[in-house]
Design brief:
Elements lengths: L1 E5 L2 E5 L9 E5 L8 E3 L3 E3 L7 E10 L6 E5 L6 E7 L2 E6 L8 E6 L4 E10 L18 E7 L3 E2 L10 E2 L10 E4 L1
Parallel strand pairs: 5-15
Antiparallel strand pairs: 1-2, 3-9, 4-6, 6-11, 7-10, 8-9, 8-12, 12-15, 13-14
Amino acid sequence: MRQRRAGSVSVLFVAVQAAAWGCSDDPVQPALESGLVTDAAVFALAGPAQERVVRVGFTFRNASDEAIYFPNCDGRIDVVLEAESQGRWVVVADPGSNDCLGPPVVADAGGSVRGSFSASVRPPGAFLESDFAEGFEPPGTYRLRILDAVFDYDPGAPGFGTPVDSTLLVSNTFEIRP
């Protein structure tokens, strides 16, 4: 383990990354000093009944003294949507990736990067399935979680570099309303 300092904020980094899919062992609580902040506290589904869509804009602020890299395929920061369920966080929408590796998105030291997440709710029997896991359609309490972020980016290294502390990769909680 090693420690990095960003001003008066000390962040502990560990070499273990959380699983990208499934339940999180984190209890439900507000993200503390998170680098990931959504544009609002409440988002609404929009569009016709055949496909209602929620779009969540976010900013990742890098308070560290070195660049943070987001490995990806298509130039976007890969995030999943998690819902609070019985005191735990459960992944309920994962847009997936194209399983390729492109240039990383970079948040320079002291800088920030913008991103967005969108998911659709479709009625049963629709041509395309809903992006939300069954039983987790809005309304509800949600958060975003960034899947991959590293220091010392190296495309040939396992995990692409030194993992960023997972607490910085979780957003504030927010509501999605129908």
